[in-house]
Amino acid sequence: MSTHVQDISASNAGTLSLLGQRTVQRVGFGAMRITGDGIWGPPKDKAQALAVLRRAVELGVNFIDTADSYGPDVSEELIAEALFPYPKDLVIATKGGWVRPGPNLWAHDATPEHLREAIDGSLKRLRLERIDLYQLHAPAPVTPFDDSVGALADLQKEGKIRLVGLSNVTREHVERAQKIVPIASVQNRYSFADREWDSLVDYCTEKGIAFIPWFPLGAGKAAHDALTAVAKAHGATPLQVALAWLLQRSPVMLPIPGTSSVKHLEENLAAASLRLTSEEFRKLADVKR
After folding, report:
1. pLDDT digits (tens, 9 = 90+) for 33-62
2. Is 70 assigned a catalytic role?
3. What is the CA radius of gyration of the chain?
4. What is the domain-level CATH number for residue 22?
5. 193, 219 in Cβ contact below 8 A?
6. Per residue, what are the HEC states of 33-67?
7. Separation CA 40–CA 265 (nearest Å)
């Protein structure tokens, strides 16, 4: 894109209200990739990781998504080191319910007892008295889903959580959870080339629930030609077009592209000002994945 760095701002994508309680720019930052290889341990270049976080906020990002399992603990600690004391409008969303046996290894623990410990740990690492958005990282096979959500509802009543979100769930999960506590967000894998959860995006749009696509730049090879053609017309990159497509897919879409590079961060945020024509959006929507 021809956008100059000084013109790049997350605010160019517009805003989204989280159940009327917090308003965020519609391009956020996913803080998983600022950890070490295998999402394990500290980053190879800590100074660069801190610089990426600070640059994101400088460029208008006020929604940062993380989890206690990223590192584990490392991502949350870096966010606090880079940004505390936080800007008043910054919303930090974190997650709990997954534990880490080792690099690239993930295991479930969504018991109420674990979630309570996890939230206390996140509050301490993030230096917060209340987490604006706390998301169940995934339903656990051995823990009743309603018990996990009920624990988050209890912690919300205690003032440790402002808003509750879900991740890696089905529509049935969302509907069940809504009977226990208002759900502010759903975070599932979704991108231009991976639309398995199309119907859930539509449901969230109807209900006014923020949809946070993880792996939002997972543009597949089959879609490459279509993205490239539109990118050339706008002087953009195919990945910027993929992000712009997401933003136009639904008004509740809240992409969180993550990176450990300031240059890549700026390229991602430049997509906030890219507008596809109705015909371009329709042609991309019709591309067979």
Report:
1. 999 999 999 999 999 999 999 999 999 999
2. yes
3. 18
4. 3.20.20.100
5. yes
6. CCCCHHHECCCCCHHHHHHHHHHHHHCCCCEEECC
7. 21
